[in-house]
DNA sequence: AGGACCGTTGAATCGTACG
DNA sequence: ACGTACGATTCAACGGTCC
C-alpha cells in the first residue's frame, strides 16, 4: 500500500470500513487521498406524509441518520467531518459534496470557512425528478454538487480533454443532465424494496471521478451508502476507500463492488451519455419577447384572433388556454397544432406562422 | 398609497430611490411589500484592499485581512440587508436572491439563519455562457436563485397555473434555460460600453415576478442597478420600489422604466388556477337544477353509483354525505375530490364529470 | 416479435377557507 | 385561535402484460 506519504500509517485501499466516518478518517494518514466524494445526510426535515394525486403514498426519506436537532447541530456535524476530510486530502486533491437546498448552503459555507477553494458548483439536472404533487412550488428537479480544491493555491487536477470528449467536443458545462438511479441499477432487497433511499446514479459518479482523478489514484467516500462511488471508482481503475456507518449498507456495497469488472483504460473513457430532447414551450417565446404578451395572433384566413397573455396562454373571447387548446376550440376540432395554426401579423401585412419564431430558439441547448 | 398598513408611513411606489439600501429600507413601513428580488453585489476584492459591497474601504488599512475576515465582512453585510428586507416583507411575501458560487452559499445560510423558509433553489442555465478560457474548470454556465418565504408558516403565493402555462402545460421545473442579457436589451453608453456589468435578462425577471405576485402588488429591489426588476414589474402591471446607491445607475434605470409600456389588462391577466376561482358548493348545482335531486351519479368505471338528494348530499347504499365524503368512502381512500370523481350519464351513454357542470356558475358574481 | 397500455416510483422541507 | 371539511394535485422512465 504505497501511498502512506511517510507517515508510517498505511492506507486501507479498496476497502469498505464500517464505522463513524469522523472517527475512521482520524485514523487515516494526512494528505493521503486524491479526491473525496461526499453525499452527507441532507437534513430534510420532512413532516407529515405526502400522497400522490392518486392517493398512493410517497416513500420518503425517514431514516434516523437524516435527523438533526437544528441547523446548529447540522453545522457542527458538517464542520467536524469536513475538517477531517481536509486533513486527509492531499495538498492538490479536490473534494466533491452533493446536496439540495436543505443543506447545500450549509455545506458551501462550511467549505469556504474551512479554507477550501470552490472551483465550480455543478447542477445535476434530473431527467425524471419526482413532480411537485401539490402544485405549491417549482418541481425540485436538480441537486447541487460543489467541487472545491483544498485551498486557493492548490494545483488541482482537471481532466479538461476527457470532459470535453464526454461532451461531444465542446467544453463540459456546470449543468449536467442525468437520469435518476432506477431500474436494474437500483439495489433492492428480496421484497423489491429499495436498499437505500438515496442511491446515486453511476453516471454521476462516472463524470465526477473521471473529471479529477487519474487511474490508480485514491477516491475516498465518507458516506459510502450502498457503494456507488466505490463501484464506479473500481470500474474506472481507481482505488477507493469507503466509510459507512450502517453494516447493512456496507455489506450491500461490498457485494456490489465485488461484482464490478474494472474496465480497460480506453473503455473507461466511453460513457453512455443520454441525449437531451428539445422541446420549446410557447411561453418561453413570450418571456423572451420574441412574441411579447399583448401580441395579437390570427389564423391564416384571419377568421379568428387571439391575444397573448404574459404566461403564454392565449385568449379568444372567453376562451383561454394554450395555443393548441384555443386553436382546437375555435375550429371545433378535437386537436390543433397551434404552432402551425396561429400567425403574427408582420409590418406590411405579411403573416408569419408561430413555428418560424420557434426555429430561432432551436439551436439553443 | 394604500398599503401603509396603518403605520403612518407611506410607500414610495413606482420610484427609484438613490442611497444605501439598508438605510432606505429602514424608512419603509414593516410588512409592506409583496415580493423582493435582490441581486446583491459581490465586489469584495479577495486580494489587496478589502472593500464593502458599497465600495467603502474596510477600516484597518494596515491590517492583514485574511480570507476569514473577507467572508465575515460579507456575511455581516448580508445579514444586515436581509434583516431589513425581512422586516419590510409582508407576512406572506416571498424573496428571491440571486448569486453565483462565490456568494450564494453565504446568502442561503443567512436566509435560513434569519428565519426565512427556502421554497426552491432555482438554476438559471445560461444559453450562452462565457467559456472557460483557461480550461481549468467546468464552464460556469449557470447562476443560482433562492426563493424563500418570510417564514416556515407563511401562506405564500405561487402562481402554479401560470407557471405551468408558461411551460407548455407541464410543471415548471427548478432549472430555467434563459439567455444572457445581450443585444438590444443590454444598456450601453454612447461609446457602446456596457452600462452595468451584470444586467439581468428581462426574461428571468418576467418568470420570477409572474410566479409569485398578482397585478397591482409591490415588488422591491434593494439593488436595482439599471432597473430590470422595475421595468419588468411595470410591464406586468405590478408596482415597484427600486433602491440603488449609484446615481448613474439610478438615472439609467429611471429612463429605462419610463420607456416601458404596461401591458393591457387582458395581456396581464394570467391563467387562473382552480384555487383562485370561486368556490361553488355542490348544493347550488342541485338548487339551480343543473344537477337535479334524484340524478344518479357514477364513477368513471361505473363501479359505484349514488343518488343526489335535495340538500346536495348524495347517497350510496347506506352511506350518505357530501360528494367528497361518499367518494372517499366507497374507494376506501383517505380523501376524494368529488368534482372529479362523480359523473352524470348523458343521453347517448356519454359520461360528464361533475366539474363540468360547475363551470356554468363560475362566471356569476 | 413488437407496439400499446398500464402500474409503479423517485432526497419532498407539497393547504386553506370557513365557522 | 382552532377544528372541520372541502377539494386540488403528477412527470418521466422503467418493466411487465396483453394483443
TrEMBL record, chains A, B:
Cited Gene3D superfamilies: Vaccinia Virus protein VP39
Catalysed reactions, as listed in the record: a 2'-deoxyadenosine in DNA + S-adenosyl-L-methionine = an N(6)-methyl-2'-deoxyadenosine in DNA + S-adenosyl-L-homocysteine + H(+)
Top-level class of the enzyme under EC nomenclature: transferase
Name by which UniProt lists this protein: Methyltransferase
Keywords assigned: DNA replication, DNA-binding, Methyltransferase, S-adenosyl-L-methionine, Transferase
Ranges where the RAMA domain occurs: 265-350
Family indicated by similarity: Belongs to the N(4)/N(6)-methyltransferase family.
Native organism: Siccirubricoccus soli
Highest taxon of the lineage: Bacteria
EC number: 2.1.1.-
DNA methylase N-4/N-6 domain: residues covered: 33-254
